[in-house]
Amino acid sequence: MTNIFEGKNVIVQGITGAHGGFQARAMLNAGTNVIAGTTPGKAGQKVATATVYDTIADIQKYHRVDISVVFVPARFAKGAILEAINAEVPLIVCITEGIPVHDILTINERLKASKSTLLGPNSPGALLPGVNKLGIIPANMSLKGKTAIVSRSGTLTYETMAGLTEKGIGQKYVIGIGGDVIHGMGYKECLELFQSDTEVDQIVLIGEIGGQDEIEAAAYIKQYVTKPVFAYIAGHHAPAGVQLGHAGAILGSDQESAANKTKILSKAGAKTAKSIVDLINLVVGS
Amino acid sequence: MKLLEYEAKNVLAESRIPIPRGSLVTDPAKLTLPVVLKSQVPTGGRGKAGGILVIDSSDQLQPAIDTLLDLDIKGFTPQNILAEEKLSIKSEFYLSILVDRQSAGIQLIAHKDGGVEVEDNTDFKTWAINEHTSEVLGQSLAEYYELPSQTFFLQDLVENLKTCLVKNDATMIEINPLILTADDSLIAGDCKMTLDDAAAFRHEWNFEEKIVEANFVTIDPNGNTATIANGAGLAMATVDAAYEAGLTPANFLDIGGGANEETLLKAFNRIVEYPNLQAIIINIFAGITRADEVANAIVSAKKHITNLPPLFIRLAGTNYEAAAKILTKEHIVIMPNLAACLTAAKEVIHD
Q1: Same domain for B228 and B196
Q2: Does residue A215 belong to any structural domain of this protein?
């Protein structure tokens, strides 16, 4: 199986926007092969070395497209993602936050019968140091290596990556699955990738209060993952029933608490930390 | 956004779902007795708190209205009171439709026994909406509720609820109780509805404002350390790490992606209200946010807020170099990491 995160030809949807343009340049600076981008009505413009087209279909007349990174504003994001699905882009990375949940439900239905995989929305994207920067994870804080990081939170992903880099522990994958209630790829799909990739020798999983995703991840770890897993669940001191920041982070039942998720991950064989500072020490000390 | 009962019922009615006859109280003299008066507060447990009164005689009306307007229910007093016809109730059921996180789809949830005690039950019936037609779902509901004569009505109800949920960008509609009246009509006795704020751009919503602040949450008003971070995960992690380091965090604050000087200054002004505050931890890992804008806000806060306790700043990511220049010029120190911030903060804290 070819690894979709290592696809060569990358495009940016919404490349002429403020975020899209800034981040497309950052991706190019990190060595990612951003061949082109789209913004309807702006065909022919350039963003650094990338040519702007109206549609993905127009790009595909000249190039194979392996990965699309979506920066299109929330109100137009559904259309943009559906366009990428129609164009059979293997990996779609959606950075945009604030997409209506019913739009994501529609997108998920279309994904089921498609050749595409979606990472996000409301995701910082994925960074494979030295290979691909697909989104907004700062490449200058990373180091090429053999650790794989997966997280629901953008900034917590950076924090962990930078903490490991500082201690000389490099990364093969740094992936943010996004903070929304409904999203594309989950922990399970990432764990599957990390377990099967022989260049990964350890896994760091970062979770949060709310939902059942980490509990499902624990079940998967117990059954399929033989590599060492280090885990931290944010929100040990979160008040119940209060939404903390993004939509997904709300403590519903006790089962969704940081304490319970930590316990279940620990039972599944993961080494667990009570704070992000401890997590880095735990990985360094192993 | 959570709707009040009368707002939610208006939305139901637009989708042809039956609701009791009623209106907001404007002129008590025009009400037809008997009448049910219901406090319109954005919280549950209203019935148990005395927020619903049944009135039979006209001399009780004004005192009842005054009582309801003054009644505090879980920190809320109503702006409005809903007056509804008194229904003769044969039985009560529970029905809701929602966007389910785990299955990443829409679910229909029912229980035979509706009413205030329904949450104590664990044996709810659930159906995935996209796996069945409304005809099948309505029939299943009729069988489950043991209301075979209502099959056609329930098929319509399911279809209308589904349309109502999607058309209005609602994430949850709960009808509890769904009332079977003495003359065998099914009618929505109460309704809770949550709309997806992210979809506001494609609606002309005009509902009572309910202040919900997801990004600033007080954890311990007497805490000695305030936290400022960007991103929900990092903000939670900063609170966790502060606890583990032996500090008592007063708050959770996620300044969000793309935070600017103005939003940050507002946050500083709220934070300095905590009475026992001795340190502020700032933990920013800029992605979409740009570190230089954060640096400018810190400089500005230092200038404009007189009683600002010591700041322990960790700043990294996008535009870090520019930020470091701005802060260094003002002799403000940036710590290399969160652990260093916590250790330094610990040293200035005294009981």
Answers
A1: no
A2: yes
A92 or A237, higher pLDDT: A92
* Chain A residues in contact with B292 (beta carbon < 8 A): none
Q: Which domain holds residue A63?
A: 4-119
For tokens 């709220």, the residue is: B270
Residues of chain B in contact with residue A141, where contact means CB-CB under 8 angstroms, are: 316-317
Show Cβ contacts of residue B331 under 8 Å, excluding neighbours closer than 6 positions.
none
Return the residue in A104, A106, A141, A155 with the most chain B beta carbons within 10 A, the one to mutate for interface testing.
Answer: A155
Report, as ranges of residue numbers, the positions in chain B whose pLDDT lies below 70. Answer: 210-214, 257-259, 351
Residue of A nearest to B241 (CA): A275
Residue A190, pLDDT above cutoff 60: yes
Residue B281 — φ and ψ, nearest 5°?
-100, 125
Q: How deeply is A164 buried, as exposed, middle or buried, from its count of CB atoms within 10 A (0-12, 13-18, 19+)?
A: buried
Answer whether residue A158 shows pLDDT above 60. yes
Active site residues of A: 246
My answer on whether A159 and A225 are in the same domain is yes
Asked if the structure places residue A33 within a domain, the reply is yes
User: Would you state the pLDDT for residue B148?
Assistant: 96
- Report the distance separating Cα A49 and Cα A34, nearest Å: 8
Domain count, chain B: 3
Question: Between A137, A153, A237, which is nearest B219 by CB?
Answer: A237
DSSP tag of B158: H
Considering the domain architecture, whether residues B342 and B264 belong to the same structural domain is answered as yes
CA distances from A126 to A91, A129, A169, B24, B297 (A): 11, 10, 18, 52, 30
Residue-range definition of the domain harbouring residue B168: 89-201
* Both structure tokens of A88: 């059979």
Nearest CA in chain B to A158: B285
Nearest to B304 by CA among B272, B336, B351, B341: B272
Structure confidence at residue A115 (pLDDT): 94
A224 in the same domain as A163: yes
pLDDT score recorded for residue A1: 46
Contact of B223 with chain A, judged by CB distance below 8 Å, is answered with no
Q: With a CB-CB cutoff of 8 Å, which residues 254-313 of chain B face chain A?
A: 254, 256-257, 283, 285-288
Q: Rounded to whole angstroms, how far apart are CA atoms A139 and A174?
A: 10
The whole-number pLDDT of residue B205 equals 92
Same domain, B230 and B342: yes
pLDDT in tens, A21-48: 999 999 999 999 999 999 999 999 999 9
